[in-house]
Amino acid sequence: MIKGCFNGEQTDLNFLFNCSNLEELHLDSMIIDFDQMICLKDIYLPKLFSFSLLDCFIISGSGKRYEEKFFKWLDYIMEFLKNHSNNLKELKIISYRELREGQNYLKSILDTLSLYCQNLTLIGLKLEHIFGYMKRFERDNLENVDGVLNEFKSFCNNCPNLQKIILFASIYYNFNLSEELILIFIRSLPKSLKSLSFEGVIEL
What we know:
InterPro entries: LRR_dom_sf (IPR032675). The chain has helices at residues 73-83, 105-116, 127-131, 142-157, 179-188, and strands at residues 2-3, 24-26, 31-33, 50-54, 57-59, 90-94, 122-126, 164-168, 175-176, 195-199, 202-203.
């Protein structure tokens, strides 16, 4: 198992090519140059069952944090997940908050999981992945979140073995979830679910 941050240093993910027996990979709070993430699309770890990417800090070696190719980091992660569609059982993925401005990653993540990661028993996502809005932007219109909730429902329908869902709130702002949204969310949950937990500050 590889877990945690390497003393705040940049991480070269090419080392994974030498880890064919790795079962758990938790890249949490690491500093990763997005150029180093390109290798993920070619990596296959046959024994991997648990992958975690929690609030990593993705940097650009060129210093241009918002150039177009910088936001392809998510594409590399999605290809990595596709490579492990048969053996991956546990997934927690939360991106660094500033990267959300680069692309509509909500639909991309849920689409990929729904199509390629149907053997998951545990999923950890941010509230944005489910409800698609943030209080600080005052996007409280239910119409804005219907699409994302439908994507989440589709994901749940395609993962018959899903037993645990962890939803992470942001440390930067609170969510204010209406009863109507909560009800829609509950109706979307799979019958196989045994555990649902919320982490962070959520206003109900």
